[in-house]
Amino acid sequence: MTELLEALTGAAPGAPADAVVRDRELLEVLAATGPERFDAVADAYRAALADPAAVAAMTAWAARFEALATVRPADPAVAELAAELAAAGREWFAGAGGGPDGGDPTAWEAFLAGLAPAQRRCVELAGREWAACAR
């Protein structure tokens, strides 16, 4: 996991610091879902990191996600970003096992608790599509 975090940080040096922390926390939650599932997600991340367009998109989304900390959950920007993240998940993480469901619910709730209300709503909306990512 350390190698993957270093790759994420190195691929997008302009990403907000909070985004790197969130990536680490999310990867830790995903690691708790089991090694096979984590390995599939890690492989999908590595493939995305090899694509400059994907890295640029992820960096932009990270900045937009951090900006959600200052808006209301009903702000249209929340649903807009969630839809974009869900579409990216279907494209880049197809077959990777979806989201963190099936792992440690306490770890997932702790991750969500660290988010601002609009960020949490964004994750919840995008998460509706995670099951589709596994197909």
Structure overview:
With 135 residues, the chain is mostly helical. The protein has one domain (2-133). Helix content is 72%, strand content 0%. The longest helix is centred in the middle third of the chain and has 17 residues, at 76-92. The radius of gyration is 14 Å and the shape is globular. The model has no long low-confidence stretch (mean pLDDT 78).
Give a quick summary of the entry.
By secondary structure, the chain is mainly alpha-helical. The protein contains eight helices and no strands.
Question: What value does the average pLDDT take?
Answer: 78
The percentage helix is over 70%
Structural class, by secondary structure, is: mainly alpha
How would you spell out the order of helices and strands?
HHHHHHHH
Approximately what portion of the residues adopt beta-strand conformation?
Answer: under 5%
Identify low-pLDDT runs.
none
Span from first to last CA? 24 Å
Give the overall silhouette: globular
Tally the beta strands. 0
* Rg computed from alpha carbons, rounded to a whole number of angstroms: 14 Å
Number of helices: 8
Keywords:
single chain, 135 residues, mainly alpha, 0% strand
Q: Topology of this protein?
A:
Blueprint: H1 2-11, H2 17-31, H3 35-49, H4 52-67, H5 76-92, H6 105-113, H7 117-127, H8 130-133
Helix pairs in contact: 1-3, 5-7
